[in-house]
Amino acid sequence: MNCTEFHDCACEVVDRRLSDDRTKELLQHAQVCPHCRYELQALAAAKQAVHDKVPMVSVPASLYYSILDRTVHRSGLSWFSRLFGVRLNPVIAVTALLTVAVGVYSLLNPYATVSDDANIIRQSLSNYQAVIGGAIKPQMVGESDRVRTFLEQGVAFDVNVPRMKDCNSCAGVLSDFNGVKLAHVVYQIGDDIVYIYQADMSEAMKGERIGLPEKAKDELTRTDWYIEENPDGRTVVLWKYKNTLCAAVSGMKKSELLSLLTKR
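The structure corresponding to this sequence follows.
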């Protein structure tokens, strides 16, 4: 198995059009190759975002594959690459554009109506993919204490910027959604990205402008933690920090992510 072979089959993996054995083989490759793992996560996020926002319409199979082929295999630098100064994998670039098109929930579309868009878990997953795709740029990069100071100037809750072992860089972004101030922390740790969404805990639990699924609220109330593992390999960890709700997303294994978040 190589990356070219994985790239050719990635869409079929997300759409579950391959045999179980073939899917298992491709997923095993994605576990050891960060680039292919990001590609798979990006495709899965794009599919979910379009599914949530755009009604399904039947089209001939020939049209579907023609559009996919023209989109993924188009050559040359896109306007996205020229704007952000990076050359992305075509699938990840397409995903970033799709994410922007349907709304990068809490950072780029702050006036979306309160519905599924206000779901903090969905926001965190979408923002994580936008960070990977390059659609979200940091406002502050530096040591964790500097990032914390920058973020706390823009919000009324305690910002959590944990120190992480082997961290290559730490960045912060401020935004608001439906009038709720939010803080975002992004770490690069080797080939992995860890994204942390932060909001006032009382706002999150009230569920009026931002909110959580009931099962997540119940678990947070009971244990101060909630963990969700997605089939595409992304892990979401929610926890309470002082008066703050934190939601971390990463492609790391659950045990590795929890170790980073709980290490003092």
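Strands lie at 140-141, 169-177, 180-189, 192-200, 225-229, 235-241, 244-250.
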